[in-house]
């Protein structure tokens, strides 16, 4: 999902009058991979706005990747001002964190056929879910993840959450290669993701993994920050024999 620079991050009037009826948790999954949520075919062409991204050199992805909201706005929702401000994911596009647009304005912006064009691939409910996610569920991840990429949380408390909510599928060490509802060969181990991309880890545990049996965890960001701190202590790969 390639939203133009500043589209959600600047301007727009607020107010309760602009609220819509949506599911922000489902919106968080749509932000990740909307076609997996609605069981649709992944787009085969670039998003209409992809060619207009301010930095066309750093991020050379194409096709379905360009339709993912996170590809422009990042797992930390800060776009060019966050983790995607440099590296191979950089687009130069602004984030959505702290938008002053109303939810109704976000819906209209997403549906605009001459811009984001999501009205052609998503239903009204999906657009509302995304709008509620952007306005109510995005968080400042720096409150939970330090500049060194380490979770600023209680790993001991996180171990309890892991054992009760994650270990059944992922294993006590988070190294199961066949998780519930998945095919053999799973390699996105919790310890690996938590260390490699802590912002992604936090988003995934909050909103689930689209298209899989992994559900969203209905816990506060503080509790899930503890979970991230514990996950960072887990092995990132199985030991070689």
TrEMBL record:
It comes from the Bacteria. Pfam families: Cytochrome_CBB3 (PF13442). GO terms for molecular function: electron transfer activity; heme binding; metal ion binding. Keywords: Heme, Iron, Metal-binding. Residues 22-138, 153-235 form the Cytochrome c domain. InterPro entries: Cyt_c-like_dom, Cyt_c-like_dom_sf. Coiled coil: none annotated. This is Cytochrome c domain-containing protein. It comes from Sorangium cellulosum.
